[in-house]
Amino acid sequence: MGGFSPIEIRVPARESQTGDRREDDQPSNFLINFSRPEPAGRSDGEILSKLREVAAPDEEDAADQETDLDIVPESDLDAAFLGEFSDIESPEDEGGDDLATDDEDVFEPDVHREFDEELTAAYAPGYRKTNSDDAVGAFFKEMARYPLLKPGEEIELARQVKFLAEVEAVRDRLKASLQRTPTKAEVAQEFGLSDRQLDHRMHRSRTAKRKMIRSNLRLVVSIAKRYLNRGVPFLDLIQEGALGLNRATEKFDPDKGYKFSTYAYWWIRQGITRTIANDARTIRLPIHIVEKLNKLKKAHRELRRDLNRNPTEAELAAALDIPVDQLRNLQQVRRRSLSLNHRVGKGEDTELMELLEDSSTQSPEAKMNETMLRQEIYTVLSDVLSEREREIISLRYGLLTGETHTLEEVGILFDLSRERVRQIQTKAMRKLRRPQVAARLKGWLR
């Protein structure tokens, strides 16, 4: 893997509500170092088959490649999560049993281990590996180095991470009361600690946070795989999912009784779906339009299943409770842009630009015909008209440059009145209308 740059998932340092950067808050870096020894038994070509298995969209997605995104605002994530599990208050309420949900079952340790096994599958026949595949594969290898957390470790680490939020809350309170940024000694005094003890606890909390994030990167990848081929590169999906995981680590309360993976799922999914809605299209659509497009796709899918045919515009509009005109507007913005450099054909050896005709450019045949017509007209004018008549007719009708001139403009050029220019033009046109002259140009007028 020599020659590749390290992959770094970088989470910015937290800022206070006033935008001040904390003196002891450092950015969280998750650096993938390729200089470490590679795990034995795994080559670069043994780690990406699962991506190719899920890369092809289903039959319905293949028609329009529209993304089903249920986008939840960040401020509503906790409410959305707690609304589903509002009956869970503490582990004791359930007799110590683990919280069981449909989503949680997906991310149990057994599935994490299954995911590790999937990464060892071989390349499909005929698949050509790219530099992006190498980068993703290296990330997977490094990710596999961090073991999963046991339930007790998860709770202990989460409680250490909560200290970071407590320190930030104390800072904000002191800043509001003191009307200035509090010193480290003042913050430490609020916790009954010395400066050195505060630094030590902050360091432990940051270390715990990094460990929680690294140990749950498999969860990020597992969710990101569901959104492949949606217009955003896979590594970018992982990056946005890692930012959501970072936020979930900060807000997770281990005393509520549910597992961290269940809680983090919502934040990871929110980060991924938000970046798809914002960045997947060449021309960005507002979030509310993306949500309407998702409803349109779901309604189309349900009606096609119920009716055993494609629904009409009227049926779709009735299902969405919107006017037909608004439905047509949604169908119009649903279309995706395609690069002129997009390669097409069986061997992908032709760019789309090579197959499209430029309507503003003449074909070689048309341009040659136009040139020959101009030459023939000029020959006829030279044979029939005087030099001044020929020049006046050429200027009036733009025979040479394609730009026409008014009687006044021609008169200024020849120092003649408008009426005299008109008389010369009339006389010249009378000569050109003679049958023997018109016959010479008749073939060009067909």
UniProtKB/TrEMBL annotation:
Q: Under which name does UniProt file this protein? A: RNA polymerase sigma factor, RpoD/SigA family
Q: Which residue intervals define the domain RNA polymerase sigma-70 in the entry?
A: 406-432
**Which Pfam families does the entry mention?**
Sigma70_r1_2, Sigma70_r2, Sigma70_r3, Sigma70_r4
The processes (GO biological process) annotated in the record are: DNA-templated transcription initiation
The annotated region (Disordered) lies at 1-44
Keywords from the named record: DNA-binding, Sigma factor, Transcription, Transcription regulation
Listed Basic and acidic residues bias regions: 11-25
Q: Which organism is it from?
A: Thermoleptolyngbya sichuanensis A183
Query: Which InterPro entries does the record associate with it?
Result: RNA_pol_sigma-70_dom (IPR014284), RNA_pol_sigma70 (IPR000943), RNA_pol_sigma70_r1_2 (IPR009042), RNA_pol_sigma70_r2 (IPR007627), RNA_pol_sigma70_r3 (IPR007624), RNA_pol_sigma70_r4 (IPR007630), RNA_pol_sigma_r2 (IPR013325), RNA_pol_sigma_r3/r4-like (IPR013324)
GO MF entries: DNA binding; sigma factor activity
